[in-house]
Design goal:
A hairpin with a 4-residue loop joins β1 and β2. The protein is of the alpha/beta class. 13% of the residues lie in helices and 28% in strands. The longest helix has 12 residues. It contains 5 helices and 16 strands.
Length: 300
């Protein structure tokens, strides 16, 4: 894995009075051999603290664990350009949303039939797919929610392609991604991808279980205020789909009202670094439709 995080207690004393204490804090570090002084400097930078007089580190351990992102440690890379697949494969009859029809993939022109149309040795295949727009990994544009919103043909490419990316690692067992969980991140102009790990259940009954993670309306409003360019999630829906939500869709409403595209049913976000990658999820330029499957990927 080659990435490390420090687990430690810290006492911060400010030069102008007052202090701050943390217990069991976890922080990305560049390697095992980090000193207390270096760790203190990373903590100050990560939290954006000013007027710090002293930092006392105690109970420190360093564990091998993937970086979660932050201001303290730059991205460690292998030095090569890497394409990362982030979309589910679309197959005949697959289930994306339980109870919604799956795609039907057939032939319009078979290779055998094409031989009658072309010169000897020349053949082609033309397939046909019949599906609803909400199939596989797909993008939602404002007209999905609002009748007068921009559709697939109306959303600018710079809101869907070659965006600077940011992964928010959602702690295991967390359902509601809210403002407090998002607040540490600098999201302005970025594709914000919520990594919940729920994609592991895609195609199973559990994928639609009540405990599926989602973005709260408050969290969506914060992303709008903070200037996110796009928001994606690797769960069944960016909104809470339980009966308790009573059909409300506050995350869709807030984001799409602000012109922020949504990408649902992502996968493979564990393969991305926290930052320093470019994200693309551009659908076909279809007029009159608000949602369509995408080939989502990242260049890391």
């Amino acid at each position: 894995m080659g990435e490390y995080r420090a687990v430690f207690d810290a006492e911060v004393v400010f030069a102008n009075g007052g202090g701050l204490r943390t217990d069991g804090f976890r922080l990305d570090v560049p390697g095992r051999e980090i000193t207390d002084e270096e760790l203190a400097a990373l903590l100050v930078r990560h939290l954006g603290l000013l007027m710090v007089g002293e930092v006392r580190i105690s109970n420190r351990t360093v564990v091998e664990e993937p970086h979660k992102g932050g201001r303290g440690v730059g991205l460690s890379t292998s030095g090569g350009r890497r394409l990362v697949e982030l979309s589910h494969e679309i197959t005949d009859g697959m289930v994306t949303l339980p109870g919604w029809p799956g795609p039907r993939i057939t032939d319009w022109l078979t290779r055998e039939a094409s031989r009658e149309r072309y010169a000897p040795g020349v053949e082609f295949h033309v397939g046909r797919i019949d599906m609803i727009a909400n199939t596989g990994t797909y993008a939602d544009t404002p007209s999905h929610r609002f009748a007068d919103g921009p559709d697939l043909a109306g959303v600018p490419l710079d809101r869907l392609a070659d965006l600077p990316g940011l992964v928010v690692r959602v702690p295991a067992g967390t359902r509601a991604v809210d403002r407090l969980l998002l607040a540490p991140y600098e999201v302005a102009g970025r594709a914000v991808l919520l990594h919940t790990g729920w994609d592991a259940h895609f195609g199973t009954d559990r994928y639609a279980a009540p405990e599926a993670p989602y973005l709260t309306g408050d969290g969506a409003s914060w992303l709008v205020e903070a200037g996110a360019a796009l928001v994606g999630i690797d769960s069944i829906n960016i909104d809470d789909m339980t009966a308790a939500a009573a059909g409300e869709r506050p995350a869709h409403t807030a984001l799409l009202a602000a012109g922020i595209p949504i990408v649902e049913h992502l996968t493979g976000l564990d393969a991305l670094p926290p930052t320093d990658f470019r994200f693309t999820a551009a659908p076909p330029r279809v007029a009159g439709m608000g949602t369509f499957p995408v080939r989502a990927f990242a260049v890391a």
